[in-house]
Each structure stands twice: as structure tokens, then as C-alpha cells.
Amino acid sequence: MPGPAPPTIGADDPQACARVVEILLGGGTVVLPTDTVYGVAALASLHAATGRLFELKDRSGGLPVALLVADADQARTVAEPSGPDVTRWMAELWPGPLTLVLPRATAAVGLALGGDGDTVGVRCPDHALVRAIAAEVGPIATTSANRHGGPTPDTAAAAAAALTGPVDLIVDGGRSGTVASTVVDATWGTWRVLREGAIGADRLR
Q1: Does residue 91 fall inside a structural domain?
Q2: How many domains does the chain have?
Q3: Is residue 139 one of the residues assigned to a domain?
Q4: Which residue of 2, 67, 105, 199 has the fewest CB atoms within a 10 Å radius of its CB?
Q5: Is 138 among the domain residues?
């Protein structure tokens, strides 16, 4: 028999930010809306919490989890901008649906985010609640709220149900889109698109 459904709070509830902050600081996981698709999130600095993200996604630790940040300044605490293109994108396309893969800053070397450990994906989302949460707790480890390789649900309840187990809180922001962020690897100064998403290559140029 499945257990009880996780508690749900509306994204427009005045207590939503405080509730999510409490859960994340306690090592929990949250399904939350972003400006692209629903994500499942944990506090990046807690290894057990980020490990739970891989379990919920049924996903290999070889595939990295990105970080959502409050602003470009917070991004620079975990990643090293690697050229004028990156600086321009942060200024012109953030907040927005662009994930940048960059060399990890020294402070982020110990974060358990999967992947090679040398790089990190960072994004400043165009979603005020998520940025407010990141401003309170620091960078948030977040991946799309769906089973690895499966479709991306567009409602909070469906996103939570798609995971392998329960999260600690669901934040309902209404129906979301199903197009994820564009992912650009700019690790070495030159760049290449790893995933086509909401921002096309023409805007990057």
C-alpha cells in the first residue's frame, strides 16, 4: 500500500518560502515549480540530501545535477566564469532558462552532485520563489521531477508521482511548461550546446 501523499503548499502561499527553507535545511527534498519544468530539489551542501535526488530519479550518479542560484553573484561562489560570453549571458539571459556548465569554484569541490566533480551546472531561474529560497539557503541542487528517461509532467502532483518515492513537500505552482532549460558547456572558454531547450543558439551568439 502506498503511504500518505506528501504535504502540498501553493507557490503563492506567503509561507511557501519559509516552508521550503525549513525542509531543505533539514535535509529533505521538495518538488517545486521553476520557470521551465517542475524540479525536485535538495540543499546542495548536504550529501545525503543530494544522494536522495539520484534515488528519486532512478538515475546514475555519473549524470550530474545542476544548481539553481539566486543571482550571478551566488553562481560565482560555486562556479568560475570562463570568458566574455559567459559574463554576457549571465547579464543578459539570467534570470532565465539557461544552464551553464562551468569549472567548479574551490568552495564547490566537495559538493556531491554527480558527474566528474570538476564542473558544475548553474542556472538563475526566472522564478521569484526559487530565487528567494536560494537566497536563504544557498545554491539548490535541482533536477527535473520525473523518472530518468521518462516524460516531464506538467503538474506538481504528477511530477511528485513520477518519482521513485515520496518527497517531503510539494509546492504547487499550477501547470508548468515541458521544455527544459538550454544547457551550454562553456568550461574552457569556447562553448557548445549540450541540450537544446528554451533558448536557441541564435540568442547565445
Answers
A1: yes
A2: 1
A3: yes
A4: 2
A5: yes
In tens, the pLDDT along 138-154 reads: 999 999 999 888 888 99
Global pTM reads: 0.95
CA 97 from centre of chain: 11
Domain contains 1? no
CATH code, 179: 3.90.870.10
Structural domain for 159, as ranges: 8-204
